[in-house]
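Bench notes, afternoon.
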Amino acid sequence: MLAAALEDARRRAVGALEPVMSVLVDLGRVFAGAGHDLSLVGGPVRDAFLGRRSADLDFTTSARPDVTAKLLRAWGDAYWEIGREFGTIGARRTVAGEDVVVEVTTYRAESYDASSRKPEVSYGDDLVGDLSRRDFTVNAMALQLPSLDFVDPHDGLADLAAGVLRTPGTPEQSFSDDPLRMMRAARFAAQLSMRVAPEVVAAMTAMAERITIVSAERVRTELEKLLVAPDPVAGLRLLVDTGLAEQVLPELPALQLEIDEHHRHKDVYEHSLTVLEQAIGREDGPDGEVPGPDLVLRLSALLHDVGKPRTRRFEDGGGVSFHHHEVVGAKLVAKRMKALRFDNDTTKAVAKLTELHLRFHGYGDGEWTDSAVRRYVTDAGPLLPRLHKLTRSDCTTRNQRKARRLEAAYDDLEVRIARLREQEELDSVRPDLDGNAIMEVLGIGPSRVVGRAYQHLLALRMDRGPLDRDTAVEELHRWWADQPESQQGETGA
């Protein structure tokens, strides 16, 4: 059975590489002509055996970076040396109207010392040695060029066919060389549905604390890749079970709240993973409002309840409450994402969705006014489509009657939002008078008073909908009469 699987994998690899085969052979001849070996290696080879074309074309070579740069400068339409300190030179060449990007790295080894946050790079001398220092056997396969000879010294193809993730050498040595590989194991479990070998899991558990010497930027990149994978829950469970999450995302394992003696509340960790799965199921196709995989939605689904451990209170009668956990959670989300060096836009979006995820739950208790609906939309702003999906996904009750009631209530809310949108541009609600008009009506100059007047008119707009100019002016004068500045004849600037 395994032999048949291997043969099937080889057929898929040939088909997957066919569109770029001429580039592979041509580049191999360029390096061979200069007296150097060149091999396609790592992810592109693995993906080819899975029957899919990789977005990257990574190569390894016996040539040192100076030589590689010279060869790629002549071969490509453009080349760059951004990764030169790690022995990597990149190039781009247009073939049949399509841009082909390649990265070529000198045979190398990477390792960390006990105090370093950056890998130390040393160059190797042969392909097999280079492959033996790769992270996992499925990434330690190579296709020599231009001969197309397949090199697999650690039976990576057999592991790929069996769906097992192992390291070429001992996992302890592999993770000591680069601790980030422990997170990659979780990422590949999520990306490729691979079962991580028991000895690899054991090493991850024993060495979890060593991940702290890796830079936050590298950790974040792996976490992003894991979250946008087809099955992020599998990877997240591995991070939590091995203790790695405690080091890089401690808010996640903190959700494993102990069940109280009355068993009145559910495990928030399991709830969060379920919400994540349901949010993924609600992502749109390429032309939708929230095309998947959507990192912001997935992060929000995973982290929306991180404020619960900090706000948990045991009430009289055995109940449990988490008052204001959405506000506390938003602050925790922002703090953690900043520590992981997420960009500001992503951080703000996930924190905002965390803060807003409970807002809907007052809707089903009583009829919201149009003002409340407007505020819901304007507070969410461009995040509204994601908030819709997050809020719906947050319903994980097994009580089907309750679940149907919540779905119906949210359906009703969306109908009302659509109806109000027909009446006005809800996404960009503004006061009926802008700052210039306010100054003109009140006869004042730029000042803090103008901002206060603006907010007052905005609140009126929310409560009453659009006002005609005469009404807005009348309301502004009424508000102005109660302000101390109007009595003093000054602006309060």
